[in-house]
Amino acid sequence: MPKQPGENPTQEQVTAPNGVAWTRAPGGTTSGHQLLEALNGISGIYGDVPRRWNWWEEGRQRREHDRHMAVLEEWDNGAEELPPDESEARMKAWSDDFDKRYEEERRRRAQLAADTYDEERASQRLQYLRDTADAAFFGHVLRKPANAAQRDGAARREAEARASAAELLHTIGDPEQVIDKRGYLPSERRATNLGAHTDYWRHRLLREWSTKDRRQFNALLKMPPPSPDDMCSECEAPAEWHEYDISVRLFHPPPAPGSQAEKIAQLMPGWWERCPACTAYRIGHVWGGSHALPDFDGGQWVAMLPPLLRTLFTSEPPKARKKRAPKPKPLATIPPGPIDEVMARLAEAKAAHPDAEVRTGAGGVLELWNP
């Protein structure tokens, strides 16, 4: 009868959760617990975001793979060892089957998009997300408005954004059921975006900041992994960041040269890079006029950011320079000269500073100091 997982560190046989019995090879030193850990680890090494959240060092994922494989190589599960030709044939069959299933899924998605994608509804959903982010942005401003005019403007625009979002929600129905033009639901895109956020944004910045900016490095390293539900469906940022006008668009190409989009991007800095689900306040603020809140500035935006975002997306405030204490000066000085002149000036100084003491300064100058 196979021994159970974790029975003791010297066991020679372990039954995995799927019922497969593993036997340790002669000379093996790893325990049954290590085997089970390796089986669990190797299966999720490329797909489990929380597991690889802090694997930011170059080559870390490969090292984790090799570590688990080194354990598995000490154990045998009794699987038939195939001749090289047959093994190669099976691998090709597996690869062909994978390609076939991939193509079937691609066609299924394309058909789903053809049958259900509604460009107007998708556009309304994005406007709904923008309105929601706008309302949250103005809500943050209202926590500490600069003055009464700004407070009134933020309150009015928050109410307008909430009303618009409610009207759009009534029109589009459940926003989570709005298919995009590639045939994917928002929840599916969020899961993909979390992986991209981890591998191509977080890990890249941690590698960069580990040698350049320990303040930002430490803050990002402490950031807990978001859940897929926390992510934006349209870009690689957590959705909450959009409330503060922060987007992360990793795979968004620049506008085509000479296009209308390029002209707009030149007129409105930040427009092209902004996620379509993010608040559009910054663009309106740059545009000015009624789009900008009275007296709102960059300093106020920085102050309303949560500590993590403030550290990640703003420069470190300059350290206040310590004021040097003024160099002490003598009460009076008497340069060298004829004795009668020096004695007369000493008498004047004594009358003015009767408790002073006389010291000799540079060049033979007499200095009167407080005792």
TrEMBL record:
The UniProt annotation puts the region (Disordered) at 1-33, 315-337
Q: Where is the composition biased (Polar residues)?
A: 7-16
**Which superkingdom heads the taxonomic lineage of this protein's source?**
Bacteria
Protein name from the UniProt record = Uncharacterized protein
